[in-house]
Amino acid sequence: MPETDSSAQQKISQNGSPTSDRPIVVKGARVHNLKNIDVEIPRNKLTVVTGVSGSGKSSLAFDTIYAEGQRRYVESLSSYARQFLERMDKPDVDFMQGISPAMAIQQKTTSSNPRSTVGTTTEIYDYVRLLFARIGKTISPKSGKEVFKDTPKTIINELFEELDEKTKFYVLFPFELREGRKPEEQLTVLKEKGLTRLLHIEDESMIDLTRDDYDPESIEPETYRVLVDRLAIKKDDATRSRIAESIETAFREGNDRCSIKVRNGKEYKFSERFERDGMEFLEPSPQMFSFNNPFGACDECEGFGKVSGIDEDLVIPDPDKTIRGGAVAPFDSQKFGKYLRDFIKVAARDKIPIDTPYKDLDKDAKRVLWHGKDNYAGIYGFFEDVKSQFYKVHMRVLYSRYRGYSRCPECEGYRVRKDALYVKVNGQHIGQVTEMTIGHAREFFENMELTDFEKEVAGQILYEIRKRLKYLDEVGLDYLTLDRLTNTLSGGESQRISLANSLGSSLIGSLYVLDEPTIGLHPRDNNRLINILQSLRDIGNTVLVVEHDPEMIQSADNIIDIGPFAGTHGGEVVFSGSYDELLKSKTLTGKYLSGKKEIPIPKKRRKGNGKSLVVESASEHNLKSIDAEFPLGKLVCVTGVSGSGKSTLVHDTLYATIQNKLGTWKDKIGRNKGVSGIKNIEAVEMVDQSPIGRSTRSNAATYTKAFDGIRDLFANTKQSKIMGYEPGHFSFNVPGGRCEACQGEGVQKIEMQFMADIELQCEECGGTRYRKDILHVKYRGKNIHDVLEMNISDAIEFFVDESSIVNKLQPMEDVGLGYLNLGQSATTLSGGEAQRVKLAKFLSKTNTDETLYFFDEPTTGLHFEDISKLLKSFNNLVDNGHSVIIIEHNLDVIKSADWIIDIGPEGGFGGGQIVASGTPEDIAANKDSHTGKFLSEILNDS
Fold first, then answer.
1. In the beta sheet, which residues pair with residue 276?
2. How far apart are CA 605 and CA 898, in angstroms?
3. Which residues, in sequence order, are CB contacts of 371 under 8 Å at separation 6+?
4. Edge-to-edge strand list for the sheet holding 46-51
5. Region entry Disordered: which residue ranges (predicted)?
6. Is 756's pLDDT higher than 70?
7. Which CATH class is domain 5-109+491-594?
8. CB < 8 Å & 24+ apart, contacts of 273-280
């Protein structure tokens, strides 16, 4: 039916932007497991898509709606532009209408580039560079005074301020011998220009060049100046004009330099060059502050901030020690004690506190300690002495003991050339600004004191910086520093940075599709995130969020629940409507939200096995030398607001130290004074969200070893024995039974030279990966390809009599992964799915060793129903004599723990302390704990 004028009519929304009333309509969507569904999404509203894991939420939101929005955008470009873009297939859908330009904000680390930082990713650093180039003041490191170019006007103003009326003075310029000229030739040139007097700068004696009673060879350029004029201070225009002319002449003839010598008094030096105190400086430009530009990057570290050399953490293993108390490890010996004694002498003169812990010393004191001063060579100088004796074996061994990556000594880790660090705005150079957290930086730029001229020059730049910092602060990232590398961010942090960038762009009329933005966010900060999404909606955008968080679902204008279950048992719209309507529905989501179904609180907390692990004085990153006890034989949950130090304590300190003791750790270990109780565990496993395999050949069946049993089963069939097939013939990883045209990949990659490579289904095997004769072998009517296409739930039913296979697959069903296909490539699994596959592998083992398991936010991507299954798996591990430590924000997991360690109270510098530790009831009773406030509501409601 043709569209009527009224249905296509545009209206003007409250903010004045043209928007359409038409909803986004999807009819007959069949992508992945979607079962020909119809969906209607209201425009300019916040819509949440929820449902159990694997039900088809992402298939609808990303693979259908977002993919079609992107495809239509690409199709709208010119044929020239399209050839450089990856070909995008049309989603399997009958009809779509009302799609806006779409942007996806997914759970992916923004960049793996070691040069990419929070500042560069958000464009804040680009604006800061421009700000420093436009209003930055270059400060001389020698005198601490501002560097600027002198002009006749500024010189006259200074003279009239400094000198009294009628004070007599000379206008001079330096006498310099030009290269290739003799003194008498230089003097002849001066005489020809009418400059016939030389003034001795100390006794003010004159040499008259028109006379012959002087020896040109005896004139020392350093002690003589060429006289341009003799004048006196008079406050009239004629005198000012004459002084200005004389100074211009001096600058022109003196190679941009001149001086004013008060008769029998002081000499004032001036320069039209950008110099001061005998140093010439570079004039600020945006390129000078870029560590990604060869002009601005530090020559020593090439803009990375670190160099291969001496590792500070190895030289100063315990920053709590004082210099006198042996903080510098190589100096704490009789052989090299001389260096310590030399430093103590310098410290006595410069009043450097040698009885203060190293970590509390200011930067100037540390600079002297490392770089040296006077007779003290410094730590770097010490190692240079060691390198000069490399012909001795023990010196090479000594040097290797302290070798590693350290802050670049040239730029001090700030990444930019030295000249850039001389430029300051409000007393801070660009390196000090990027060291600030987003919260501190916002305060710094909001309270910046500027002159009227600076406000006019930098007004728009500051507006852009403040706007971006405001959004980053509001999405709960105030604890991140601007120089934090983006490849060290979690998926949730990366997603929130992308969200803040989108808000900063102020686009309207767009479709934003987000994938669980609450990941990694403490319940305290959920409202801040919800407000951000609502403001994105309010300026005229449609926001589509895949989410499980109850608060986010409650705040939505519209909710779409996909289910009823996962995989082939999902892919249907089981509910669409408001939150109040959802509470009355009979869907799994509705039952959990209404309280008809719930994850029960344990009736009693486990007492553990009486043993524990104790971390002493953990001080890595923002940890404040804390002691933390982790009881064993319990389900322990480490909580706290984002950036409080949970991962630093658990991953970088506890796990790394245990692995190092077991001899399997080569990376850096978080600073601590020791971990006791390691003898109480026999093995340790880290179950994180890293991929289970980087190859497309890796899948859940191969990872859990279930595929071994499946191949044996097919090899034992009557047909295989007749044909002489071995288990290897049913593997797509080795020659034998696999299709050699695609080498068992199922697809063939076609290189397109300057265009993106494309993958086409293998014509030889039709994407099945195997030779046709192998596919003729069947077990219960299914060939090996059919089995790999089964999901885990169906496979368990299919192999019900084969315990060796079922025992490997059942744990995956137990952790809520029954919807995954056996042959689904590991590279397509989300971080949460990969983590649960690893958990299933451990559950399938009959491990009798007392093992300590670490989990990092295992509820990522999980529905309430899946969390219930996950908790049963954790409890099985603990009940079997193991210990489990989880980093988690999910309140259902926290309330089910036996012991909680709450870190905080805030993120970044405001965190790093243990706010409370104990049972969930203990934490709920603690008024200082943010986690406790939310826990008390849950425990009191139950």
1. 279
2. 5
3. 378, 380, 381, 409
4. 102-105, 511-515, 542-546, 46-51, 558-563, 572-577
5. 1-23
6. no
7. alpha beta
8. 273/149, 274/138, 274/147, 274/148, 274/149, 275/147, 276/140, 276/142, 276/143, 276/145, 276/146, 276/147, 277/140, 277/142, 277/143, 277/145, 278/142, 279/140, 279/141, 279/142
The architecture CATH gives domain 612-692+830-941: 3-Layer(aba) Sandwich (3.40)
Residues 331 and 315: their CA atoms lie apart, in Å, by: 9
Cα–Cα distance for residue pair 297/97, rounded to 1 Å: 50
Residue 417's SS3 state is: coil
Where are the alpha helices (H) located in 799-919, listed in sequence order?
803-814, 831-844, 864-879, 891-896
What is d(CA 457, CA 453) in angstroms, rounded to the nearest whole number? Answer: 6
Per-residue confidence band for 7, with pLDDT thresholds at 50, 70 and 90: very low
> pLDDT digit string (tens) for 835-849?
888 888 887 776 677
Alpha carbon 65 to its chain's center: 29
Please spell the DSSP secondary structure of 679-732, one letter per residue: GG-SEEEEE-SS-S-SSTT-BHHHHTTHHHHHHHHHHTSHHHHHHT--GGGG-S
**Cα 870 from Cα 897, distance rounded (Å):** 13
| Euclidean distance between the first and the last CA atom of the chain, given in angstroms as a whole number | 54
**CB of 310 closer than 8 Å to CB of 607:** no
Contact (CB, 8 A) for 883 and 654: no
In the prediction, which pLDDT does 710 show? 95
Least confident residue range of 34-38, 219-223, 251-255, 683-687? 219-223
Do 120 and 292 meet the contact criterion of CB atoms below 8 Å apart? yes
Q: Give 335's contacts (C-beta < 8 A, 6+ positions apart).
A: none
Distance CA 645, CA 621 (A): 8
Classify 306-407 by CATH class: mainly alpha
Domain boundary assignment for the chain: 5-109+491-594, 152-273, 306-407, 612-692+830-941, 700-813
Compute the half-sphere exposure of residue 22: CA atoms within 13 Å on the CB side of its CA.
17
Strand order across the 137-138 sheet: 137-138, 423-425, 428-429
Helices 803-814, 831-844: crossing angle, 10 deg rounding:
140
> Hey, do 152-273 and 700-813 end up sharing a CATH topology, with the first three levels equal?
no
Domain 152-273 grouped into CATH 3.30.1360.170: no
Give the phi and the psi of residue 643 in degrees, each rounded to 5: 80, 10
Give the rounded percent of residues in the chain with a pLDDT score beyond 90.
54
pLDDT at 17 over 70: no
> Does the pLDDT value for residue 79 go beyond 80?
no
**pLDDT above 70: residue 199:** yes
Q: CA–CA separation, 705 vs 722, rounded Å? A: 26
Residue 202's CB is within 10 A of a number of other CB atoms, namely 9
Name the strand (E) or helix (H) holding 901. strand 899-904
d(CA 437, CA 402): 30
pTM score: 0.79
Dihedral sign for Cα 242, 243, 248, 250, please.
positive
Comparing CA positions, the residue from 293, 291, 289, 271 lying closest to residue 280 is 271
* Per-residue model confidence (pLDDT) at position 643: 85
CA distances, 698 to each of 495, 713, 801 (Å): 27, 20, 26
Alpha helices in 601-673 (DSSP H): 646-647, 656-661
pLDDT band, residue 299 (cuts 50/70/90)? very high
Q: What is the DSSP string of 551-595?
A: HHHHH-SEEEEEESSSGGG--EEEEEE-HHHHHHS-SHHHHHHHT
- State how beta strands 197-200 and 224-232 pair: antiparallel
Strand partners of residue 916:
902
pLDDT for 437 equals: 92
Phi, psi of 909 (to 5 degrees): -65, -25
Pairing of strands 851-856, 683-687: parallel
